[in-house]
Amino acid sequence: MIKKPCLMIAAARSSAGKTSIATGLMGALVQHGYRVQGFKVGPDFIDPGYHTAVTGRWSHNLDTWLLPPSQVKKLYEEAVADVDVAVIEGVMGLFDGLRGGGERASTAEMAKLIGCPVILVVDVSSQARSAVAEFMGCRAMDPDLHLAGVILNRVRSSSHLEIVKSSFMEFGIQVFGAVQEGSIPRFPERHLGLVPVIEQHEVKQTFDQLTKMISRQVDLAELLKTAGKAYDISGIKCEERAESHYLKTDFPEYKIRLAYAWDQAFNFYYQAGLNFLRKFGVELVPFSPLNDRKIPPEIGGILIGGGFPELFAEQLTDNSEMLKNLQNAHAQGMPIYTECGGFMFLCENLVDQEGASYPMSGVIPGKCRMKRRLVGMGYRTAQALKPNIFCGTHEVLRGHEFHYSNFIPKQIPFPWAFSLRGNDNKFDGYASGNLLASYLHLHFMSSFQATSNFLDCCHKWFHSRL
Fold first, then answer.
1. Range 248-464: architecture per CATH
2. Under 8 Å between Cβ of 255 and 281
3. Model confidence pLDDT, tens digit, residues 265-274
4. pTM (2 decimals)?
């Protein structure tokens, strides 16, 4: 394992300010001439976009449930090979991960897996000396974790800072910085969290302000010194899965073009997963269901990831030529794989929270209806109910879901794709011919065989038409 300077930006709970501080720190280091690689612990798609915007490098997800630990370590090692420092943003609270799974898939587990010092962001807006107990509790819960110190967030005044900072110093805890309340910009939010960078028009000004304020209020030199204390974890053992195919290196060459949706409505992809497809010789061709009239030519398949089709429903409906293109591609048997927002886009109708119904592609018999509360969230183990373009009957895939809509099938019985284990064994998705669609977000690196099956299907379909 390459020993590279790195920092884990964590917190004891969500909404403490991890994303703003991690992103600002990355931007500040870049402005000081460092090559910075960003990462996000867990399955989040939006936060990595913020990291990417300030570093100029794709940020990657580190997730020990979607991927086996050895694959996570390999992904990390490859990504940091040519940088000066890595900054990893944690997920939720420091010890929060897989429900009922101990520390599995948590920030704490990841910090130990890659040998990373942890900086705890502490929201001190409504506390003073008691804030120290938050840090001390985390230290007591896992003495093996390298908790290096804190960044104080939402400090209300100079006198407030003096009290809180002296309290931490009393217990020998290093304070790397203090961010004044209201001094850094607030990122816009909505039902799935932060608004993706791709939708924000004046985001550069926001990032410039954030970077400037973090540079002023955080001690970059001391943080870099701490980052250099990343420890060698080559001897640390981690739980592995039994499947041997995860670490294959003999990639078959498919040499095909795949179209993938990329615009404001559809942009949720694991970048490491897309890079994984390229290792098979795949050329990925972006297209916009919002703005393009046709799908790209000479392709062997289509990917439509997640996103926010509900916010662009009228524009998607108005692009009738694209809808017809997708209908024709499906009618011709072209392999199509869609996730969450992409699944919603392929249905007959999308109904928004006010009850307005918008016609979509219409290749899946049913409609999706937006709800005001979260409908599905969490890691899922999906067992195939019938053969599909990824796997055979009873085979299992790992995924994650996070959505505010539910699917209403038009017909019963319905050709469901999966049974979700541990979630009341409810059914999800649609599998018919060369189309696979569901609410699940999968990681192409998660199963070499499933990815190979999909690409083989695309390759055979394309060459059968030559």
1. 3-Layer(aba) Sandwich (3.40)
2. yes
3. 999 999 999 9
4. 0.93
